[in-house]
Structure formats: structure tokens, C-alpha cells
């Protein structure tokens, strides 16, 4: 516990909460998974990057920095993965070790759900347009987060307007007319298509 407050006043007692610390088996399993991903990306990097420009030095090849970063991640991940397997072999309670290891992915379900909604949002941009897809995505995200009052609906709508203004006017990012406007009368697409 810590005590805080101005001198001469009754101190306010504040409980110190220990930080969430992942158990070593969870760290090891996460390292194993990320090492596997790094190795897959290392194999794909030469195929998925542009070739080196002929008139530039080798260090400017687009594949170099991703390969260096992935190689460092794979090496450090391999060390942690080796420790993970060594600890698993040395432990007597294998069931407890596995439970602790899989606790590394306890919060993954919510993250995967939001990633799924974001992928749908990216697809929705090509059908609904930037503004309408952003409005739908923002409303869905606040609803899934449990923020269901009118204040939050209005806040999400205002954030959508701000994002559209920043992207359209600030950055100058424009998308072609969304297919949904072809289903509406021509004046709707001509009037609102460039903004939405």
C-alpha cells in the first residue's frame, strides 16, 4: 500500500495492484507461435516484395529490412521456444503447464472478433463507400463494446464526420463512386457520392 496526500492531511490509502504477469509457459507458447509466423514470413518475403532496383545499392532492396527484422524475431523466438520445451520436459505437472501455456491466448477471442469486423469494414468500403462503411463500423464497434446510449451513438457519428473530413480534405483521399449509389436515383449519387 502507498499513502498519498498533501502534508498535514489524512493520507489517502491507495491499493497497489500487481501488474499482470504472464507465467513463463504462456510466454514460451506465445514465442513459439510468433516464431512460426516469423519463419513463414521469412519464406514469403523474397516472393512478396519488389525486386531490387538495378541502379541502387543492395541495402535499398525492399526485401532487406523485413528479412532482417523477421530474422531477429525468429532467433529470439527460437531461444524462448527452446526454453519452453526444456521447461515442459522438466515439469512434473504437465496438465498445469499446458493450462498456463494456453493462458497466453485468453484474451484472443475479443481481438479476433474486432479484427473480423475491421476486415468486413474494409470490404464494406468498396460497396457502401468510405463514409457509410465507417459510420456502420463505428456504430457496430461501440455497440459491441457495450456503449449503447444515445451519447455514444452521437459520438461515433461525430467521429465518423471528423474522419471523413480528415481523409477527404486533409489527406485528399478519394474513393470511386460506391456501387450502392448506382441503386439510388442519379441525383443522390451526383450530390452525395463524392462525399460519402
Automatic annotation (TrEMBL):
Residues 31-176 form the DUF1468 domain. The chain crosses the membrane at residues 28-47, 59-85, 114-140, 152-175. InterPro entries: DUF1468. It comes from the Bacteria. Keywords: Membrane, Transmembrane, Transmembrane helix. Residues 1-22 are annotated as: Disordered. This is Tripartite tricarboxylate transporter TctB family protein. It comes from Chelativorans salis.
Amino acid at each position: 500500500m502507498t499513502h498519498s496526500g498533501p502534508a498535514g492531511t489524512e493520507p489517502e490509502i491507495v491499493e497497489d495492484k500487481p501488474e499482470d504477469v504472464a507465467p513463463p509457459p504462456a510466454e514460451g507458447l506465445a514465442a513459439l507461435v510468433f516464431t512460426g509466423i516469423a519463419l513463414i514470413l521469412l519464406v514469403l518475403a523474397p516472393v512478396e516484395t519488389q525486386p531490387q532496383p538495378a541502379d541502387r545499392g543492395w541495402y535499398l532492396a525492399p526485401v532487406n529490412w523485413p528479412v532482417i527484422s523477421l530474422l531477429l524475431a525468429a532467433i529470439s523466438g527460437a531461444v524462448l521456444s527452446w526454453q519452453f520445451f526444456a521447461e515442459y520436459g522438466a515439469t512434473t505437472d504437465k496438465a498445469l503447464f499446458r493450462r498456463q501455456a494456453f493462458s497466453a491466448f485468453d484474451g484472443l477471442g475479443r481481438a479476433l472478433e474486432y479484427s473480423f469486423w475491421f476486415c468486413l469494414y474494409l470490404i464494406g468500403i468498396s460497396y457502401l463507400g468510405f463514409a457509410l462503411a465507417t459510420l456502420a463500423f463505428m456504430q457496430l464497434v461501440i455497440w459491441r463494446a457495450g456503449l449503447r446510449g444515445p451519447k455514444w451513438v452521437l459520438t461515433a457519428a461525430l467521429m465518423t464526420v471528423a474522419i471523413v473530413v480528415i481523409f477527404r480534405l486533409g489527406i485528399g483521399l478519394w474513393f470511386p463512386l460506391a456501387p450502392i449509389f448506382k441503386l439510388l436515383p442519379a441525383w443522390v449519387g451526383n450530390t452525395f457520392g463524392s462525399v460519402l
